[in-house]
Specification:
Elements lengths: L13 H9 L7 H13 L2 H17 L1 E2 L6 E2 L5 H4 L4 E8 L2 H10 L4 E5 L17 H13 L6 E4 L5 H14 L5 E4 L15 H9 L6
């Protein structure tokens, strides 16, 4: 019988416990966690108190936007409340952090919908675990309000799970008469063909455009 790995126990001494908690953050290894811990310890007590208060306050007050399901401290997020955004164009992303990345580009002036993941049967993540039902309801409701959403931009990660989810969404949305688009995949700006993997080159060829 294969035994499940036991959950690591938190150290008892204060410094090691601080390192232990920082190391739980995504992308933070033990060395980085140690640097963060010692940075906090070098600051005065007011900094530590402010950091702790910010964490607790954010956790208590932050929830999901009732429309797009990103994180917000109000009923609806700032983007959904922005009348200047194109309400007919919805960009579907996997995570709230993806919204920040897209906003940085300045190329999208529509609104968003966060799925909170991608389809992954091996991990037990099916349509019911994602915000897919809510997306379909949102699209149908837009027609009822006489302000129909005309395009859904599927901006999911170019992974096996992301591709499978994009195909699944396309099959559900197209019958509604809504245009479904997807982020183009290809060579990054400044990329070099010699060091680019064949899948990316293949995508770039398939997504080729006419030169003007």
């Amino acid at each position: 019988m294969i035994q499940k790995p036991s959950t690591p126990q938190a150290p008892k001494d204060a410094v090691s416990r601080l390192v232990f908690e920082f190391a739980k953050l995504p992308g933070i290894g033990e060395k980085t966690a140690t640097r963060l811990a010692y940075f906090v310890l070098r600051q005065d007590l007011t900094y530590a108190e402010a950091l702790a208060e910010a964490l607790v306050t954010a956790k208590k007050k932050t929830g999901m936007c009732s429309v797009c399901f990103t994180f917000t401290d109000s009923e609806t997020c700032a983007t959904c409340n922005d009348a200047s955004r194109n309400q007919q164009l919805v960009c579907v992303v996997e995570r709230p952090t993806d919204i920040h990345s897209i906003e940085q580009s300045g190329a999208h002036r529509g609104i968003y919908h966060v799925l909170h993941g991608a389809l992954s049967p091996l991990d037990g993540i099916g349509p019911d675990e994602l915000k897919i039902r809510e997306l379909l309801h949102r699209l149908q409701r837009s027609f009822e309000k006489n302000s129909p959403i005309t395009e859904v931009l599927v901006a999911l990660n170019p992974s096996v799970e992301g591709e499978a989810t994009a195909i699944y969404l396309g099959r559900l949305i197209r019958p509604l008469g809504i245009k479904v688009t997807q982020l183009a995949h290809g060579l990054p700006v400044g990329g070099v063909l010699e060091y680019t993997d064949r899948q990316t080159i293949g995508r770039a060829i398939l997504n080729r455009v006419e030169m003007s």
